[in-house]
Specification:
CATH topology: Conserved hypothetical protein from pyrococcus furiosus pfu- 392566-001, ParB domain
Distance between the termini: 62 Å
Order of helices and strands: HEHEEHEEHEE
Structural class: alpha/beta
Number of domains: 1
Largest sheet: 7 strands, mixed
CATH class: Alpha Beta
Number of strands: 7
CATH superfamily: Conserved hypothetical protein from pyrococcus furiosus pfu- 392566-001, ParB domain
Radius of gyration: 18 Å
């Protein structure tokens, strides 16, 4: 088999994987409606209200556990709560990232916002989706932490206080 045929076969495999995840997301959403649950990805700006004061600090490059990535800063409608793709137009990009991961390509770190112990993806949604799909435990991320500022001036990263 030629290199060109291998690449085409590889791309077809990842496109099929994407379609499989997309179908799972749609089925999960339908089942969730029947059971009264939600499959929506947490949205940073709706989860944490704008009327609170926040201090932001860059923590730099860190290793983040995939299971702690539970939301998005701005692409909440593109993925479900398991980071399965909802929109079909994401297929080519998702397949490209999946192929790169499978080939051992080192991808740039994702960018996340940390609030309390939850991470919200700012950049790198496809990388998180693929990482979850392949069972990756951790991912490199550039982290910005948001700390809630209490009325008396004391900072906390617990937005519920």
């Amino acid at each position: 088999m030629s290199l060109s045929n291998l690449v085409t076969a590889s791309n077809a495999y990842y496109h099929d994987e994407f379609i499989h995840l997309h179908r799972l997301a749609r089925l999960a959403k339908a089942f969730a409606r029947l059971t009264g649950h939600s499959t929506e990805l947490l949205c940073l700006y709706t989860t944490y209200e704008h009327d609170h004061a926040w201090n932001r600090a860059d923590l730099g490059l860190q290793t983040v556990r995939i299971e702690q990535i539970c939301g998005s800063e701005g692409r909440c409608e593109d993925y479900d709560n398991h980071f399965r793709p909802i929109k079909l137009h994401e297929k080519a990009r998702w397949a490209s990232v999946a192929s790169a991961v499978d080939q051992g390509v080192i991808l740039p770190p994702i960018e996340v916002v940390k609030v309390e112990e939850i991470y919200f993806v700012r950049d790198g949604h496809h990388r998180v989706s693929v990482a979850k799909h392949v069972g990756q435990i951790e991912i490199d991320a550039v982290v910005t932490v948001w700390q809630h500022v209490q009325p008396h001036g004391k900072e906390t990263d617990d937005a519920s206080e």
